[in-house]
Amino acid sequence: TETGLQPETLPADPAPVAPMRDLMSKFDGLIAERQALLDSGVTDPFAIVMDKVRSPTEAVIKGKDTILLGTYNYMGMTFDPDVLAAGEAALAQFGSGTNGSRMLNGTFRDHMAVEQALRDFYGMSGAIVFSTGYMANLGMISTLAAKGEYVILDADSHASIYDGCAQGNAEIVRFRHNSVEDLDKRLGRLPKEPGKLVVLEGVYSMLGDVAPLKEMVAVAKAHGAMVLSDEAHSMGFYGPNGRGVYEAQGLDGQVDFVIGTFSKSVGTVGGFCVSDHPKFEAIRLACRPYIFTASLPPSVVATAATSIRKLMTAREKRERLWANARALHGGLTQLGFRLGTATPESAIVAVILSDQEQAVAMWQALLDSGVYVNMARPPATPAGTFLLRCSLCAEHSSEQIERVLGLFAAAGRAVGVIG
Ligand code: PMP
């Protein structure tokens, strides 16, 4: 026979078939927890549907006009007429999808155009676009740091950074969130010879706090490490050219790799890495999450290219976004809410609540009164905290911010979060 087994060598009395193990039973705890939440009568915070989206700041949820205060649409580009026109033209000219990898048939005119827009935006020689920001981190981290080398990351890093570490073969070392001292200490304990990649984020998305990148990059360099900074939550509104926290802290030219996404300020979907490294293009030949997946649809890269070019000169939007962040942060502080940062450091304002029950009650009260915020809970949040995460948009009007503050005051008093 093909297997080389002769019928007479098979056991006469085969062992009984093993019982089927239900691999889904490991989720029983999660299913029960979610059911208990729903049984308490609240809307499922993780199953919201936008029936209509009227603008970057307004949608219809369950038939109700709702102010969006929990999206990453920082610069309000999703309804920009030039962005929409670019997407529509590309859709008509190039069709709805690429049907292939960037490596083979999946590179169209606008994939080249968006990479050029990124080179221009960041003033760097290299740009590689991935299908999402998640995949950019997954691909870059797992490809840059190989077996016997080290990735050193902040303990509060985004899941895509952790998953990039898990996908690769390097040794992983964590340091205490935003602690320059701990970073220095951990790097100091590593052997001198192997390659090292320190992974940082400009803005940490749960609390909205900014990293001391200047000190951290200096420490990394002193230990011979290369640096990757994820600037997902800063693109468009930090630094003279909107490049991110690293630019705002005077580090242009000192960060080896910058990761970003199209899903926040750019207003569509996709991810990227930019770098000045002379050998950067080699990533395209070795990076599995770049190679073994389909490229972004032509309409998506066309909207991204147009949006990125507009972000280069979006001074007014930047100013409005910062004014909105200050107004919301100041108003919530005055009302007595406990926030993730003492001052407005980013476009994220996190309201810290004592437990899941309080967080869900507050979230529900806000939704019922017409404002949507993100509910965030462990394991996404640091130190087991429950958060209502507000993120601002340049297109929020002062009237909307005022209205939101009034609704927070009412909900906070009803739920007993504030006096
Ligand atoms: N990095 C950070 C810091 C993020 O917060 C996110 C998404 N929230 C990503 C990467 C992934 O981006 P994308 O949505 O493009 O996958």
Automatic annotation (TrEMBL):
Keywords: Pyridoxal phosphate, Transferase. GO terms for molecular function: pyridoxal phosphate binding; transferase activity. Residues 65-405 form the Aminotransferase class I/classII large domain. Its cofactor is pyridoxal 5'-phosphate. It comes from the Bacteria. InterPro entries: Aminotrans_II_pyridoxalP_BS, Aminotransferase_I/II_large, AON_synthase_class-II, PyrdxlP-dep_Trfase, PyrdxlP-dep_Trfase_major, PyrdxlP-dep_Trfase_small. NCBIfam families: SerpalmtaseAlphaP, SerpalmtaseBetaP. Belongs to the class-II pyridoxal-phosphate-dependent aminotransferase family. This is 8-amino-7-oxononanoate synthase.
